[in-house]
Amino acid sequence: MLEITKENIEKATAKARIAKPLVKVIEFRRYSVTNRETGATYEVRFTKIGNQKFGECTCPATKICYHISSCLPINAVLASQMTQTA
Ligand SMILES: [Zn+2]
């Protein structure tokens, strides 16, 4: 589980813009990310502890990867929808 910070997510987002992976929602905070070129699919999960956000991905990367950053905007939309209905 890796902490998501503004710095590391910015780097990963720059990569995601180039790679443009396909993101599918499994459930809130759980996503499936597919690389359009290789077809490789990884699972991304988010956890929130206090005000800190954490992400994990099943890919071999040992830092915040573009799979995680690709899911963040969708996660934010789902989170805001949940607050509205709550
Ligand atoms: Zn990854």
Structure characterization notes:
The protein has 86 residues and is α+β, with helices and mostly antiparallel strands. Helix content is 40%, strand content 33%. It has helices spanning 6-19, 66-85, and strands at 2-3, 22-27, 30-34, 41-49, 52-57. The protein has a 5-stranded antiparallel beta sheet, with helices on one face. A hairpin with a 2-residue loop joins strand 2 (22-27) and strand 3. Helix 1 (6-19) packs across helix 2. The mean pLDDT is 95. It binds zinc ion (ZN). Zinc ion is lined by residues 42, 57, 59, 61, 65, 67.
Structural class: alpha+beta
The number of strands is 5
Question: Could you give the order of the helices and strands?
Answer: EHEEEEH
Q: Which geometry do the CA atoms define?
A: globular
> Beta-strand level of the residues, as a percent range?
25-35%
Average pLDDT metric: 95
Please provide a brief summary of the model.
The chain is an alpha+beta fold and 86 residues long. The chain has helices spanning 6-19, 66-85, and strands spanning 2-3, 22-27, 30-34, 41-49, 52-57. It is built from two helices and five strands; from the N terminus they run βαββββα.
Write the SSE topology:
Blueprint: E1 2-3, H1 6-19, E2 22-27, E3 30-34, E4 41-49, E5 52-57, H2 66-85
Antiparallel strand pairs: 1-5, 2-3, 3-4, 4-5
Helix pairs in contact: 1-2
Bound molecules: zinc ion.
Zinc ion is lined by residues 42, 57, 59, 61, 65, 67.
